[in-house]
Specification:
Number of helices: 6
Number of strands: 0
Structural class: mainly alpha
Distance between the termini: 16 Å
Mean pLDDT: 76
Radius of gyration: 15 Å
Low-confidence stretches: none
Strand content: under 5%
Length: about 110
């Protein structure tokens, strides 16, 4: 894991950004706050995320990735802020990643 953090410092910065309450507030504002709307492709959250990582192209790309872990995190932030109840068995944990989005586990001998 430490090797990956050294090789991919962007991953560390994305994790740091997702822990930042200001970034969660940007997701909330992009969603229309109390008045729901579709997340904009040029929203403040995605734009700021690209800036923080030093990859300006990341913002627009992340905004249209409708099935990835980032959009799932954004949805969980929005549901929590709205106080929306989720169906039984539905994962509403900010850090839960669908099985297909997880890396493969490798056995080390």
């Amino acid at each position: 894991m430490a090797r990956d953090a050294a090789v991919f410092p962007e991953v560390v910065e994305v994790a740091r950004a997702l822990l930042d309450p200001v970034m969660a507030k940007l997701v909330w504002q992009d969603s229309g706050a109390g008045r729901p709307r579709a997340l904009p492709a040029d929203g403040a959250f995605c734009r700021r995320l690209g800036e923080r990582v030093g990859r300006e192209w990341l913002g627009p790309l992340a905004a249209v990735d409708l099935g990835g872990p980032l959009i799932a995190w954004m949805g969980a932030v929005i549901r929590r802020r709205r106080g929306v109840a989720v169906p039984p068995g539905h994962r509403d944990d900010l850090w839960w990643v669908r099985p297909w989005g997880r890396g493969r586990r490798r056995r080390v001998w």
